[in-house]
Amino acid sequence: xxxxxxxxxxxxxxxxxxxxxxxxxxxxxxxxxxxxxxxxxxxxxxxxxxxxxxxxxxxxxxxxxxxxxxxxxxxxxxxxxxxxxxxxxxxxxxxxxxxxxxxxxxxxxxxxxxxxxxxxxxxxxxxxxxxxxx
Length: 134
Known about the structure:
Strand content: over 45%
Helix content: 10-25%
CATH topology: Lipocalin
Low-confidence stretches: 12-20, 114-122
């Protein structure tokens, strides 16, 4: 019986430690990304609850949108946004690596975008570096 209690306590402690190791990215982040007419500032507002990430992404060319399926695992972050272009919806997946006050993101249009970035044989998108707003 004692060994079961100890085993349970170790498992609970391990789960708590993994949650504590998740980087705290709560707040406002600004990134510059290539746009149709030069670079644009993308504003991200993140809220973290354990390993779950929510918030918004605001691109001045497309407007604000909610972050979906956001996750933080240690120093890795991922989420997606859905953008509508005419009658078509595109899912854009963001994946990043957190390092202090900086997050290095890559993004990919799910399924690729013919003649554009994000797969389907097209050139990879450039890395996007977000910095915590002060």
